[in-house]
Amino acid sequence: MAQRVQLTATVSENQLGQRLDQALAEMFPDYSRSRIKEWILDQRVLVNGKVCDKPKEKVLGGEQVAINAEIEEEARFEPQDIPLDIVYEDEDIIVINKPRDLVVHPGAGNPDGTVLNALLHYYPPIVDVPRAGIVHRLDKDTTGLMVVAKTVPAQTRLVESLQRREITREYEAVAIGHMTAGGTVDEPISRHPTKRTHMAVHPMGKPAVTHYRIMEHFRVHTRLRLRLETGRTHQIRVHMAHITHPLVGDPVYGGRPRPPKGASEAFISTLRKFDRQALHATMLRLYHPISGIEMEWHAPIPQDMVELVEAMRADFEEHKDEVDWL
Description:
Strand content: 25-35%
CATH architecture of the largest domain: 2-Layer Sandwich
GO cellular component, one term: cytoplasm
Pfam family, one: PseudoU_synth_2
Order of helices and strands: EHHEEEEEHEHEEEEEEHHEEH
CATH superfamily of the largest domain: Pseudouridine synthase
Oligomer: single chain
Radius of gyration: 23 Å
CATH class of the largest domain: Alpha Beta
Number of domains: 3
Catalytic activity: uridine(1911/1915/1917) in 23S rRNA = pseudouridine(1911/1915/1917) in 23S rRNA; a uridine in RNA = a pseudouridine in RNA
Protein name: Pseudouridine synthase
Distance between the termini: 64 Å
Helix content: 10-25%
Shape: elongated
InterPro entries: PsdUridine_synth_cat_dom_sf, PsdUridine_synth_RluA-like_CS, PsdUridine_synth_RluC/D, PsdUridine_synth_RsuA/RluA, RluA_PseudoU_synthase, S4_RNA-bd, S4_RNA-bd_sf
């Protein structure tokens, strides 16, 4: 059920020159700036009795502002008792280590059984935070660290930190092919022109930057450490496929398993059974949204990736004399 929001206030003289959405976010701190921007664009905001649908409109101070809007509460999603691996928690944030096969937010094909449903059960007051405090996402079968805000002020500041690229996210991955050096992929990403559930490098896309370095070589695979500057949908998966080194197991961008010549049946079986992208969010570093203290968390790769790496390492040791790049 939608919650009606009716607010009135006077813009402070101290806010002279601010954008309308910025001023309103300061005046009504219980609501995120992104939500206020949506209300402005939806013509839910009156300034001196007239509709203003321009978030960038500058305020002069002294204006009478009225908001008449509705919030589709996250309560429309059911709390569900889904276990969460809590790495850290305080009164403002939760850091979780997400397992594979868990969608972050309900959507088409995944109406429930998500991180959001789990959060609503674990911490019921989070229903009052937009998107149940979720500020960034991991793909369904990408494992690892993600931060969630427990309050609106914490969420607003985390979103701003993401936009300013102040949150560091590092990943481990296993890519197909022998890579000779680390590097950077700086290629814009947009929705695929014909496959609407896929993403693709496209000159008209949004800026996307991925840095990567080599952790370990195998015969025909490479273990990587990657760092995101931006956070586009499927960014690492798309960028690595773009440079012809898709991630092992990626069902969308990766293609079929490619065992090296002479590989054992055990290794081939391990490779074929690995049915998700070999990608794990292993490190998260940020400034706490309320205290400002720098914080950092680490999560080792999960067991399925451990087994994959060990199998590749054993294969490499067995066939080291046949490798021509050593």
